[in-house]
Design a protein that fits this description.
The complex is a heterodimer of chains A (217) and B (213). With 217 residues, chain A is an alpha+beta fold. Helices cover 29% and strands 17% of the residues of chain A. Chain A has a five-stranded antiparallel β-sheet with strand order 4-3-2-1-5. Classes of the chains: A alpha+beta (217), B mainly alpha (213).
């Protein structure tokens, strides 16, 4: 979707604020917001790309101005309300919190200690042959769509070269609709000068893109 | 069941915006009280998440990986070919290391990592991302003006050093392997690891010789 989250190449942003650069969290409440957000979603009752899309749907002003983990917490909360484990009236204080009617027991500290050392594997088997090979020239889709996607707007309708193939991964656009579609995933190399009109050097940008974002060129 | 309905979500966000306290600290407190009272969250699990990334998991892990690669050619070859396997070999696997890729700086190449669409980051080896990595300024500018961004971080590159920017748009995560500074012959892994800054593994730092003297 053409949301404010799609920040790559947007202009008018100033100096990068490097205050608190070495604090792992940015204040106690942001650490708490992080821990609460991941406690609420860590069992992953929905795909990661639905989480990402729900975060993208935060009001644009809030998205750009609120503390980072605050936006994660609001996302986790919205997802809990959406799937019915929490009632909006309980959040707004119009109703006393009822018992946990959900299926999920809250995560324990032992669960958390396990999760932080267990990386999920997103690669999935497929019988479909990859449509592109390393070194091949491709062109990205000219337009986006109103749902979740991982083709940033700045990289639309641009020629690039396949740099690497990573097997097949779930397509984020479909995952965020609750559908399971598996596609080949590639790293594609673009000339910065093909992406941005003012660039005159030979710098390059790499993006990880799914097969349906690309066509042979 | 999740609805997968963006319009419903937009409405939920609108309600949350109107009904929760506008001040961030108060908002987080109100949410924690509710989630704990409802039995959806164990506050001890929240503590455990925070402690894991304060005490155990942080950029020292990435620094050990880089230092070992500087010393051990076979390990470096594995790291460049399959960084996930290299991380597993060191027993440092964690969140977001399942599809890890290492990219190497040389005299002719400088690498910079960003996630323009959200804030993807290799938590498991670098810990929590710094605030600037998640900020709109860095996400917007580092693909369009990476050399300007690098200058702000004190990295000045001559025109004959090519910049490669890695925008983390999938579940792949990137770590930069910075160059080993001169004057470190005979140093052991522990001493070398101390030279490796978190920013050098993101790409906003390049010359690590400042720690040698």
């Amino acid at each position: 979707m053409d949301g404010v989250h799609d920040l790559g190449g947007k202009q008018g942003f100033g100096r990068i604020d490097r205050d608190h650069e070495n604090d792992p969290y940015h204040g106690d409440h942001d650490a708490r917001a992080y821990g609460l957000s991941v406690s609420l979603r860590a069992e992953r009752p929905y795909p990661i790309d639905w989480f990402r899309h729900v975060r993208e749907l935060i009001d644009p002003i809030d998205y750009l101005t609120r503390p980072y983990f605050d936006s994660w917490l609001q996302t986790s909360l919205a997802l809990a309300i959406d799937r019915g484990v929490l009632d909006m009236a309980e959040v707004t204080g119009h109703k006393a919190p009822g018992p946990n009617a959900g299926d999920a027991k809250p995560l324990t500290p032992e669960d958390v200690r396990k999760i932080v050392v267990t990386p999920p594997n997103f690669e999935r088997p497929t019988d479909v042959a990859p449509g592109f090979s390393v070194g091949g020239t491709v062109i990205t889709a000219a337009q986006g769509h109103s749902g979740h996607t991982r083709l940033p707007a700045y990289a639309r309708n641009t020629k690039g070269v396949i740099h690497a193939h990573h097997g097949a991964h779930p397509l984020p656009d479909a995952e965020a609709r609750g559908e399971d579609v598996i596609e080949h995933l590639y790293t594609v190399e673009f000339r910065a000068a093909d992406l941005f009109p003012e660039v005159t050097n030979s710098d390059v940008i790499y993006l990880d893109l799914w097969e349906s974002y690309l066509a042979a060129a | 069941m999740s609805s997968f309905d963006p319009h419903k979500i937009t409405e939920i966000h609108r309600h949350l915006h109107s009904h929760l306290p506008p001040e961030p600290a108060l908002r987080v407190k109100a949410i924690e009280s509710l989630l704990v009272e409802k039995g959806l969250v164990d506050p001890k699990a929240v503590d455990t998440w925070i402690e894991a990334y304060t005490e155990d998991i942080g950029p020292k892990r990435g620094a050990q990986i880089v230092a070992r690669a500087w010393l051990d050619a076979d390990f470096k070859a594995l790291l460049m070919k399959d960084a996930t396997a290299a991380v597993n070999d060191m027993g440092l696997q964690g969140q977001a290391t399942g599809h890890l890729h290492a990219v190497e700086n040389t005299d002719a190449v400088h690498n910079l990592v960003v996630c323009t669409l959200c804030s993807c980051y290799p938590f498991g080896i670098l810990g929590m991302a710094p605030a600037w990595y998640k900020a709109a300024e860095y996400r917007a500018r580092s693909v369009r003006d990476p050399r300007g961004v690098l200058t702000e971080f004190g990295v000045s590159l001559s025109d004959n050093v090519a910049v490669k920017v890695w925008d983390s748009t999938a579940e792949l995560r990137y770590m930069v392997v910075p160059q080993r500074p001169a004057g470190t012959d005979g140093w052991d892994q522990e001493a070398l690891a101390k030279l490796v800054t978190r920013n050098s593994m993101i790409g906003t730092d390049r010359d690590l010789s400042k720690g040698v003297a």
